[in-house]
Amino acid sequence: EDALAAARAFGASASHELRTPLQSALTNLDVASASGHGGAEVDAARDELRRAAERLSAVRALSAVDLVSAAEFVEHDLVELVDRVLAGFTGRFESVDLLGADHVTIRGWPEGISLAIENVVRNASVHANPGESVALVVRVATDATVTIDDDGSGIGADERARLLGRYERGSTSAAGSGLGLTLAARVSAAHGGSLVLDDSPTGGLRAILRFS
Question: pTM (2 decimals)?
Answer without folding.
Answer: 0.71
